[in-house]
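Here comes just one.
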Amino acid sequence: MVEESKGGTAAAVETAGLVRRFGDFTAVGGIDLRVERGSFFGFLGPNGAGKSTTIKMLTGLLAPSAGRALVLGHDIAQEPLEVKRRIGVVPEDLNLFERLTGAEMLAFTGRMYGLGRAEIAARSRELLELMELDAEPRRLVVEFSHGMKKKLALACALIHRPEMLFLDEPFEGVDAVASRTLKDLLSRLTARGLTVFLTSHVLEIVERLCTDIAIISDGRLVAAGPLEELRRGISVEGGQESEALSLEDYFISVVGGTRDAGAGALGWLG
């Protein structure tokens, strides 16, 4: 049974005992996760922790080995098309058709979501202008920079007006100008009620944007909750609350990354 959130509707994401195995290897080992609607949610973890595998299960690209996942109140295993109609996804590898122009890529995406031609044309113009991709309309995607491809992928994820966005490393390899554009746009979208589920290794961006986070390590959830509460909850000395930790310090304390690379390391370098 789906629990009700404070607003009386199902959570954006709710998982129970979510597991994914690849042969004898368990990539995700029983995650219980809840993401409220309208939140900007950061899903963090070291390389190989299971972040991308979790996103692929939540978006219907991988079937869970065990457990259950509800997205926007719909069981992803039982109603995959209903979930996919309501979400937008920017995968880490982007998966764009590079022999199309930006407008053609958006038109193809819009048709896949069942939008009409006039609606696609109007939304594409607005999205290309917003993403600053309208200067050379005949330019093929293969000629785009990495940052331009990221912005086009986000435009494709938005064209059908989704209720929720899944973003897997959207800032990786993106320059400062493109990064600012993406951050400002995502902040505006969440202010309007869109739910964003973000994975990123750039903790400064997560700290600036996200209201809630979860941290996964070795396929298991090790922390989850409002960002400010989590940071303050661990920064206690002698019974007195000290200044809240930075997200980087909190993240390292939770995942156990304490290896010292200071004096004495790589002494052969001088």
Remarks:
- Residues 176-191 form the longest helix (16 residues).
- Confidence is low (pLDDT under 50) at residues 1-7, 235-240.
- The chain is about 35% helix and 25% strand.
- The radius of gyration is 20 Å.
